[in-house]
Amino acid sequence: MRISVIGLGYLGAVHAASMAKLGHDVVGVDVDAAKVDALAAGTPPFYEPGLGELLTEVSATGRLQVTTDLSAVRGAQVHFVCVGTPQRADGYAADLTYVDAAIQNLTAHLSAGEIVVGKSTVPVGTAERLAEVVRRAVPGAHLAWNPEFLREGFAVQDTLSPDRIVYGVPGGEAAVTVTAALDAVYEAPLSTGIPRIVSDLPTAELVKVAANSFLATKISFINAMAELCEVAGADVTQLADAIGHDARIGRRFLNAGLGFGGGCLPKDIRAFMARADELGAGEAVAFLGEVDAINIRRRVRMVELAREVLDGSITGKRVTVLGASFKPDSDDVRDSPALDVAARLSELGAVVTVHDPQAIDNARAKQPRLHYERDLEAALAGADAVLLLTEWRQYRDLDPERVGTLVAQRTILDGRNALSRTAWTDAGWQYRALGRR
Length: 437
Ligand code: UDX
What we know:
This protein is of the alpha/beta class. 44% of the residues lie in helices and 14% in strands. It has helices at 10-21, 33-40, 51-61, 97-107, 126-137, 155-160, 174-185, 187-191, 201-232, 236-244, 265-278, 287-309, 337-347, 360-366, 376-380, 393-396, 400-404, 421-426, and strands spanning 2-6, 25-29, 64-67, 78-81, 115-118, 142-145, 165-169, 196-200, 318-322, 351-355, 371-372, 385-388, 411-414, 430-433. The chain is globular and about 70 Å long.
């Protein structure tokens, strides 16, 4: 099929390359010329494991074209809209400027029979509204919503082999046309038995925010238990293992620590609360306010813990922060808990050095006043306390003996419960973690 992808960020770039890998002819469009140039040269514009190899593979087939010229989408049978929906500056609601503009601009190049497919996360009701925009501008063209569930760090795998594929389709005869077109797009993954759910537009929009709300709630639940463990002298990692053995609960997403961040979970639960309020159903998701509050309290607690181990005063102390991205295997620093804690410590007078394997450039752009160090051993040198805030593999594999020869004080705060407490205490370290004695 001939497919267009509008917006080539973490979602769109991976989607465009993956669609080409599935055998489709793809044109990707973005307003950012630097991003387009990088992709045209087969280089990922951000860090995502496996994307470089995928781009090299599909570039050789000639099936992926990228451009800043929106008119290049002409003739595509299916147009995927993958632009961002960040939190609005003036409140919790989602900023729909980019989605609205993308679809409005797209209609100038659209023909009857073509299908616009939204993948961006939007407040429920948006798709019905945009379907009307498309129908009015181009009679015979349709709009569907096909939410994306990819995780950064696993984006290629999640796109090519998702847990499920959801289509939100319009009512009436268009439902058949749209479903058939999407079945053709996803023929290869569907043939492997991946479940497909066809729903109306509002259900598809809600599936995405409901999934992210559940995941955020699960993380905040275990972090609330961590708060209890801290005051009761219990151990949240053992608690998570024990409850996680119950298949109804499950151990995944029960890692207590500094909590969730990134470009999705925080803004999606806030936009959900804002939209529910508009619909008069705010009470139904009021608990998400608590989920958000628990999450932010972990960052505050981390700073308190740093103060405790630094003998009650942070001012002038040398603190090494390991990790700036919101999660390992990503260079994304949007709402990163690690970078937030680093900034809070710096504001309180600590001399903070931040290390990250991939996210330093993005972190510097967001927090230019922090000190960054690309060499891990140089970053650790002379530290009064080391804070592990994003659990990259290379931090989990650190040798406590070796690190002990570099720092000023053998004090480590494990913000992700990612290290072996025994290994570090045996090497003479003071080891403290969130949710553990
Ligand atoms: C999330 C959803 O998982 C994905 O389905 C959706 O499409 C986009 O949002 P992502 O933001 O890439 O994906 O990251 P995810 O792996 O979900 O982690 C989110 C945050 O939660 C990270 O900051 C991570 O460190 C934190 N986390 C995750 C925990 O604190 N504990 C856990 O047990 C799991």
